[in-house]
Amino acid sequence: MQTSEIETLLRQSLELTELYVKGEGSHFQVIAVGDLFEGASRVKKQQLIYAPLSEKIADGSIHALTIKAFTPQQWQRERKLIMPE
Fold first, then answer.
1. 7, β-bridge pairs
2. Does a structural domain hold residue 39?
3. What is the mean pLDDT of the chain?
């Protein structure tokens, strides 16, 4: 499984303003930014990300997935901590 495949699945299914996927083998980290996360609980945010990837998780292509999901406003505050320049 390539990071580009995960990016494609998520971009096709969700309206995201920014998306970052890192990983190797079957372990991946996703940072997703979009208005769709506004007012969503942490669990709901994870469910939104898991849904388009469920087949890949079920077939073992994705074994571990770390998710960080933000609204654009939250991302403006958090990106400096997560992605230092």
1. none
2. yes
3. 94
